[in-house]
Each structure stands twice: as structure tokens, then as C-alpha cells.
Amino acid sequence: MPTIEHMRELRGIDEFDEEMDDALLVEQGYEGVPVEIENGEYFQIPENHIGRIIDEEEYYFFEGIMDDEIEKELANDCDLLEGNYLLEGDIIKAID
Predict the structure, then answer these.
(1) Which pLDDT score is estimated for 40?
(2) CB contact at 8 A, 95 and 85
(3) What is the β-pairing status of strands 60-66 and 91-95?
(4) Which residues contact 50 (CB under 8 A, 6 or more apart)?
(5) Residues 6+ apart with CB under 8 A from 81
(6) Distance between CA 61 and CA 92 in Å, rounded?
(7) 3-state secondary structure 30-63
(8) What crossing angle do the helices spanning 4-11 and 21-31 adopt, rounded to 10°?
(9) What pTM did the predictor assign?
(10) Cα(74)–Cα(23) distance, rounded to whole angstroms?
(11) Whole-angstrom Cα distance, residue 75 to residue 62?
């Protein structure tokens, strides 16, 4: 789905015009496209867009490995920023 900032820019709306925020959030939801990602699949969030996880299962961002343990952060409540990713089980890895 497009970012709020991108939607403001396209419509010429000032970032401090908070009265338009609710309308933009509703419109953002309508412009979102659900995509199903399978385990082991690479996926991309395009420029000026964000991704959201809509699932009852918990998913995590891969942070790295420390002391032979995977460092991870819960991803379900976060936006995925533009970029390339890989889904491995319940871990989402950013790919450079």
C-alpha cells in the first residue's frame, strides 16, 4: 500500500494538514493489495509503499545472530519498509 507521505505528495497536501489524515488512512486501506507469501519466497515492497502482516501467526524480523542464537523482533505490529525480503518460516529477512 502507498505510504501516507507519498499520498500527501501526490495530492499536494501539506504534511501538517492533520484534518486530511483520517481520509488518507481510509484511502490507503482501499489502495492496499493483499499478497500471500509462501515459506522460502522472496518478495519486494516497492518504492513509496509499505507492507503489513495480516495474520494470526507471529512473524519476526531477523536482527542477526548473537551468541549462537537468532536475534529477532516481532514484525506483526510493524510496517515493512520498501525493499527486498525473504520469508523463512516465521522469520522475515531483509535482503540487500
Answers:
(1) 95
(2) yes
(3) parallel
(4) 1, 2, 3, 79, 80, 81, 82
(5) 45, 50
(6) 5
(7) HHCCCCCCCCCCEEEECCCECECCCCCCCCEEEE
(8) 110
(9) 0.66
(10) 29
(11) 9
- Which three cell numbers mark 91? 522469520
Domain ranges of the chain: 1-33, 37-96
All three cell numbers of 85, joined, read: 525480503
Contact between 75 and 59 (Cβ < 8 Å)? yes
Q: pLDDT 10s digit of each residue in the chain, 96 long?
A: 677 788 788 888 877 777 777 777 777 766 677 888 999 999 999 998 888 888 888 888 888 777 777 777 878 777 888 999 999 999 999 998
CB atoms within 10 A of CB 43: 17
Using alpha carbons, list the distances in angstroms from residue 40 to 22, 26, 86, 88. 36, 32, 7, 5
Portion of the chain with pLDDT greater than 90, in percent: 20
